[in-house]
Structures are given as structure tokens and as C-alpha cells.
């Protein structure tokens, strides 16, 4: 049979509906708010040209080998209705690649989002460390990933959980990774317990439920038997575990690190990230509503804010301690990751500022494939003997090899150092470098002795000599004085944390304990949890016991009364409103000029207005961002009512925002929307005025995050 005997539709497939022969094919580039990894080769060398060379090339559809593909909609068959042929290599390649697109998700921190940015040092750390990226005015590209801990990659953003706060600095001396959390303490003191705490917190293995929650028996079984987890458990039950936004989240290095100055002197430090927008949280009801309404809330909020030009910023700071042989400070063991040092005892000194400026171009290539390791250090920053940190030095490298398919994960563009790499490492899966020569070893003569060892004088990473304590049979469990907080003291710092909170924050924490323990089926576990609580605070235990319908036990542990630390509370006045989202509610009678005026005023203050109306489209020249059918109160920080809009969905919006203590403003024509929801126009956080004054009042109230007096009286 010749081609002339075959119907043309079988040899010349129809033109795909998305193609126009008269229009040239131009590949889409990144959006204005997006940025990819720096264009560098697998050994760190800069590659000349545009970063688009990494993207797919050419106007025609091809196979991975570059052969042109005329039809990607139909497989090759034996006749028009015959079986599919195995020789269709394009079918096999397309399906095979699809079948292998997924890589193992992270065991912990699987759910995350990230952004590119820049870190600028102010020079305040120059006397503490020889790390060049901390010298005055040094600018360092960074990639920052935020994450939840327990949930799978597809879980919701707003669950109650610790958040990861990992920063990759692409310094001129190599990559430095600071892999921390939004909580300054951890559940365990020894790395060997990490599999246990994660197995306990993950979904129970028989039914694989609950997802991304700690409100179940196995978690509470572990933390009530392993009392060193008490401090982190209290933080996890606090508002800190329910951040309003990743942009409003504090970060901590958790461990104590050692800084080495140019002259060799050493200091011990703890790292802090202080958000310039303040530390703010959701209410528990909001988190549950948001998880259903928009499970991607946090990643959307971060990406939208960056796209709007509202780059979030954090001040990077250190608490500095003398590097003494006992590694204690004010009785606090600095090698204990379940303890913090109150800022009132060791103030945080700002040493630079982080600014997130661009969203990733490709989530998988960047956010999913980025690999953080505490072993990625630069000269001037060293680890300490913290037993949890020591275990992490092994675990992170090990998990990246498993997750990313081999030891060459550092050659992926997002992980490539921004400096020369000459490591003598060879081969392995996914090797992207092409190494010439025969001498992949040291010492060698065949390669001229290259590469030469880095100079001790400013080039090499050389650990500073640190005295080793004499052998002893004693564990780190003894306190030197009545005011000491040792490894064995598991209740004094949780008490300090709880008593440092405002009355409203304490109530939120008590309600969280009541909810979580109320979800446990085992009364034995509930009783042990009450024992933990009464060892921290009697009134807290009384409240939770009452909620559970159980008796409060007597304390069975001595606790040191430490001075409260006001810095641990989130209630610290007014903050910038950058990136806050306001619903501007309108109807068909609302003037487009008025909407444009208030929107401009909000945008000039850094707020993102969203026009909300009964239907989509354009009203008097103003685009509608949300309809009554697609909105919910949880995506807004405040509402400006320019119309009353008698609709049950508007009533729900106003009622929820009132109940959640959010800023509400209305013009006189919209006051009935307040009245029908029994809202007092003179209540805290409520402004009724003309459109200009209402906008001003709204902005003032947004700076307070919530109308706390409305929610909690004077607490």
C-alpha cells in the first residue's frame, strides 16, 4: 500500500485547535514578579546569556531527543480502530515521563512555599564573625522556604502546626543554610527521638488519619510521656501555631551556634528573624474556615503580596552569649534545644535585613527541589554540641540523597553555589558536570597537584579549636542554682511562656489544649496531659480539666518561677499594614469614582483592595474581584461597606468579621448592614463616616490587627 491509498486524515492530522499558522509561536516567559535561580553551571561557574536558555526551546513540538512531533493527540494504531502499536515511541516517552514526574515528598515539611530575595548586612556582626556575607553593606541573594511540619504536600496551609523557616544564602564563600522554625524551642533534646515524635504526630498508621493535625491520641501519648516536649507543646497550642501570614511570622534558628571572629575569638549565638509587619495570628475558627475555603491561603498570600510589589521584610538578629566551657547563660543550658533565652536577658541585636522580592518561576524546579542542610556552613559560623543539632547534620544530607535521587542534588540550579566548586566528587546519578583529566584524587602529580588546598588565611572552612569536657558518668541534668533551668527541668520555661502571654492569648492556649485533648479517645492520655498542665499552671489545669469533665491532679514536679518575658507576647501595639487585604463592598448604585478614590487611598497605604459585588464583571468602570458567591470573610483583614447590599452572604461576611474582631468601616448609606447584624456603630474597630474618613479609620484599625477590646474586653 502506498500513501496514495491511505485516507489523508490518517497521514496528515488536523491542525490542533490552539494553533494559528499565521501567528508565530513565542514561548511564554516568566511573569514580572517571578525570578528563577541564577544562571550557573553545575560547578558554580556563571553562564553567559539569558536565563531563558534553561527553558524549552524553539517554536515546534519535539520529543525529548529533539525530533519534531506532528501529532501528540493520537497514538499510532494498526488501522483506524485497531490496537495501539508498541513502536509508537512518542506515546511511550510521553507516558513514561508522566509516570515518573513525582519524586518522594519530604518526610516532614512536605507542604511549603518559597520566594527569592536579598539579604543586606549592616556590619553589626563584623566583630563577631569572619563570615563575609555579614560584613557591612554585603548583599547576598537568598531563597527562603516556609513550610508546615506534619502535613503531606497536599494538606492545608492554615492547620495548627509549627512552621519551617529555612533560608539559603548564596554567599561568595559558598552556600549557607539556616534551617529554623517559627518557634524557638523543639519537642526533643536528642536527635535519636526525632523519628518517634514525627511518627507520633503523623496520621495514625492504621487509618492514615488525621491529616496535618496533632489532635489525636498518638501525638498526645508521646508528648505526655516524654515531658521534655512540654515547652514546644505549649508553643504549639498558642497563637504562634496559627500565623495570619507567612509575612507576619517570626523565625528562629532554635539551636545555639558558634561565631568565629577574624582574630579567632568565639561567641555563642541564637539567630532570630523579626518580621517588620509584626507577629500576628489567625483565630482558631478562621483557620478551620480557611482550610476549606482556600487551603492554599498562605502560599497565595505570599505570592500575591510579592506580585503587588509589597515585598515582605525581616530583620535578622542574634542573641550573643560568652563562649564559656559550661555553655550556660544565666543558668540556662545553651545546648538544650527545648529552652530559649528571654530577650530581656539577652537582647536581639539586628545584623541585617531580609527582603523577599520575587516568586519562583517554577514550583517544582525551585521550591520542591531546593535542598537545605545544616551542614552547609561558611567560614565564621560553626555548630555546637547541641545533641539535636548534631543529629540533624547527618539527617538532612541523608534525606536529600534519598529524595532527589543521589548525591549530585547540589548541581540542581536552585541549589548551585554562587562560587567556584572544585570538590573532586565524581559520577553518581544525575551528574551534570563534565570533568576533564584523570586525577580525581589528592595528592596527585598527574593533575599538577590541583586543586590546591584552600588557604587557612581567609579561604578555608576550619573549625575553631574547642575544649572537650572531661569524661563523666553524669548526664546533663543538674541545675547549678535555684534559678537554673537545666536539661531536666521541663516545666519552668513553659510556665514562663504561659505567664508572659496576655489574658486573651492565654485563653486561646487553654481552648487549644481543651480542643486537642477532647479529640483524644484515651482517658489515660488525657489524665497525663492534665498532669503536665498542672505542673505548669494550676488555673490552666483547672480550666482544661473542666472542659474534659475530669478531675485536676495534684502537681508532682517542682517548678522554678522565672520572670515573665513580655517579648513572647504578640500584643505589641500598632504595625504596618502592607499587604493587608480589604473587601470594598459595592452595589449597582455605588459611584465608580468613590470606589476608585478609596481603592487608591488603600493602595497608597500598602493595602490590597478587593471590590466585592453581587455579580462579576465591571461596575461603573471598576472591575469586580470577588462576588458574593466567591467571597468569604477569612480572606479579608477588614471591610469597607460602600453599600448595604441586603443579601444573606453579605450578612455572613459582616457577622464573621465582627465576631473575629476585624476592622469594619461603613458609609452612612451602608449602616443598615451593621444594624441588621446587631453591630454597634461606636464599637471598637468600627468606623462610620464619609468614604474618606471611613477609609482612614479602617487603616488605623488594621494596624492593630484586631479590635482586641471587642474580642476580649480589656485583656
UniProtKB/TrEMBL annotation:
The keyword Oxidoreductase applies. PROSITE patterns: CATALASE_1, CATALASE_2, CATALASE_3. Its cofactor is heme. Heme binds at residues 106, 145, 194, 392, 396, 403. It holds the Pfam family Catalase_C. Keywords: Heme, Hydrogen peroxide, Iron, Metal-binding, Oxidoreductase, Peroxidase. InterPro entries: Catalase, Catalase_AS, Catalase_clade2, Catalase_clade2_helical, Catalase_core, Catalase_haem_BS, Catalase_immune_responsive, Catalase_large_C. GO terms for cellular component: cytosol. GO terms for molecular function: catalase activity; heme binding; metal ion binding. The active site is at 109, 181. GO terms for biological process: hydrogen peroxide catabolic process; response to oxidative stress. Its EC number is 1.11.1.6. Decomposes hydrogen peroxide into water and oxygen; serves to protect cells from the toxic effects of hydrogen peroxide. This is Catalase.
Amino acid at each position: 500500500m502506498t500513501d496514495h491509498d491511505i485516507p489523508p486524515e490518517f497521514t496528515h492530522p488536523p491542525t490542533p485547535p490552539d494553533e494559528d499558522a499565521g501567528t508565530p509561536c513565542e514561548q511564554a516567559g516568566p511573569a514580572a514578579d517571578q525570578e528563577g535561580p541564577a544562571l550557573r553551571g553545575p560547578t558554580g561557574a556563571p553562564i553567559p546569556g539569558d536565563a531563558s536558555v534553561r527553558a524549552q526551546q524553539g517554536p515546534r513540538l519535539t520529543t525529548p531527543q529533539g525530533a519534531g512531533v506532528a501529532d501528540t493527540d493520537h497514538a499510532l494504531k494498526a488501522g483506524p480502530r485497531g490496537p495501539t502499536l508498541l513502536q509508537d515511541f512518542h506515546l511511550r516517552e510521553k507516558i513514561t515521563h508522566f509516570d515518573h514526574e513525582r519524586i518522594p515528598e519530604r518526610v516532614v515539611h512536605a507542604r511549603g512555599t518559597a520566594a527569592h530575595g536579598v539579604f543586606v548586612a549592616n556590619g553589626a556582626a563584623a566583630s563577631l564573625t569572619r563570615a563575609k556575607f555579614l560584613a557591612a553593606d554585603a548583599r547576598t541573594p537568598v531563597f527562603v522556604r516556609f513550610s508546615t511540619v506534619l502535613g503531606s504536600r497536599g494538606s492545608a496551609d492554615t492547620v495548627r502546626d509549627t512552621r519551617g523557616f529555612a533560608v539559603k544564602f548564596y554567599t561568595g564563600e559558598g552556600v549557607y543554610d539556616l534551617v529554623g522554625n517559627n518557634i524557638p524551642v523543639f519537642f526533643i533534646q536528642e536527635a535519636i527521638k526525632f523519628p518517634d515524635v514525627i511518627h507520633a504526630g503523623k496520621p495514625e498508621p492504621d487509618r492514615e488519619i488525621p491529616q496535618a493535625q496533632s489532635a489525636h491520641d498518638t501525638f498526645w501519648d508521646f508528648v505526655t510521656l516524654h515531658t521534655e516536649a512540654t515547652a514546644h507543646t505549649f508553643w504549639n497550642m498558642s497563637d504562634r501555631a496559627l500565623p495570619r501570614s507567612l509575612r507576619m511570622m517570626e523565625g528562629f534558628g532554635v539551636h545555639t551556634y558558634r561565631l568565629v571572629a577574624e582574630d579567632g575569638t568565639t561567641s555563642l549565638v541564637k539567630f532570630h528573624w523579626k518580621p517588620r509587619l509584626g507577629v500576628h495570628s489567625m483565630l482558631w475558627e478562621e483557620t478551620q474556615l480557611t482550610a476549606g475555603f482556600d487551603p492554599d491561603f498562605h502560599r497565595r498570600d505570599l505570592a500575591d503580596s510579592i506580585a503587588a510589589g509589597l515585598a515582605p521584610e525581616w530583620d535578622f538578629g542574634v542573641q550573643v552569649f560568652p563562649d564559656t566551657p559550661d555553655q550556660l547563660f544565666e543558668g540556662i543550658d545553651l545546648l538544650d534545644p527545648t529552652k530559649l533565652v528571654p530577650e530581656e536577658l539577652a537582647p536581639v541585636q539586628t545584623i541585617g535585613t531580609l527582603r523577599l522580592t520575587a516568586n519562583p518561576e517554577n514550583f517544582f524546579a525551585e521550591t520542591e527541589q531546593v535542598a537545605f542542610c545544616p551542614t552547609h556552613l561558611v567560614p565564621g559560623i560553626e555548630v555546637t554540641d547541641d545533641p539535636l543539632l548534631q543529629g540533624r547534620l547527618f539527617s538532612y544530607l541523608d534525606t536529600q540523597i534519598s529524595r532527589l535521587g543521589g548525591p549530585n542534588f547540589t548541581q540542581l540550579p536552585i541549589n548551585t553555589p554562587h562560587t567556584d566548586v572544585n570538590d573532586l566528587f565524581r559520577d553518581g546519578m544525575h551528574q551534570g558536570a563534565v570533568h576533564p583529566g584523570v586525577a580525581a584524587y589528592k595528592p596527585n602529580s598527574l593533575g599538577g597537584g590541583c586543586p590546591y588546598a584552600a588557604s587557612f588565611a581567609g579561604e578555608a572552612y576550619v573549625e575553631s579549636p574547642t575544649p572537650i569536657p572531661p569524661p563523666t558518668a553524669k548526664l546533663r541534668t543538674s541545675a547549678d542554682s535555684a534559678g537554673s533551668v537545666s536539661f531536666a527541668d521541663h516545666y519552668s520555661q513553659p510556665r514562663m511562656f504561659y505567664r508572659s502571654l496576655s489574658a486573651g492569648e492565654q485563653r486561646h492556649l487553654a481552648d487549644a489544649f481543651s480542643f486537642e485533648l477532647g479529640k483524644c479517645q484515651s482517658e489515660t492520655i488525657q489524665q497525663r496531659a492534665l498532669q503536665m498542665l498542672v505542673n505548669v499552671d494550676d488555673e490552666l489545669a483547672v480550666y482544661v480539666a473542666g472542659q474534659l469533665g475530669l478531675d485536676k491532679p495534684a502537681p508532682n514536679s517542682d517548678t522554678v518561677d522565672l520572670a515573665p518575658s513580655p517579648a513572647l507576647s504578640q500584643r505589641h501595639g500598632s504595625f504596618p499594614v502592607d499587604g493587608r487585604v480589604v473587601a470594598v463592598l459595592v452595589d449597582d448604585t455605588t459611584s465608580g469614582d468613590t470606589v476608585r478614590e478609596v481603592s487608591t487611598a488603600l493602595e497608597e497605604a500598602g493595602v490590597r483592595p478587593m471590590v466585592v459585588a453581587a455579580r462579576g464583571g465591571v461596575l461603573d468602570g471598576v472591575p469586580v474581584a470577588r462576588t458574593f458567591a466567591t467571597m468569604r470573610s477569612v480572606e479579608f483583614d477588614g471591610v469597607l461597606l460602600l453599600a448595604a447590599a441586603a443579601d444573606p452572604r453579605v450578612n455572613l461576611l459582616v457577622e464573621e468579621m465582627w465576631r473575629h474582631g476585624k476592622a469594619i468601616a461603613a458609609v452612612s448609606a451602608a449602616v443598615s448592614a451593621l444594624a441588621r447584624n446587631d453591630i454597634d456603630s461606636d464599637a471598637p474597630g468600627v468606623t462610620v463616616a464619609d468614604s474618606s474618613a471611613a477609609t482612614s479609620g479602617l487603616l488605623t484599625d488594621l494596624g492593630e490587627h484586631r479590635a482586641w477590646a471587642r474580642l476580649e474586653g480589656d485583656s
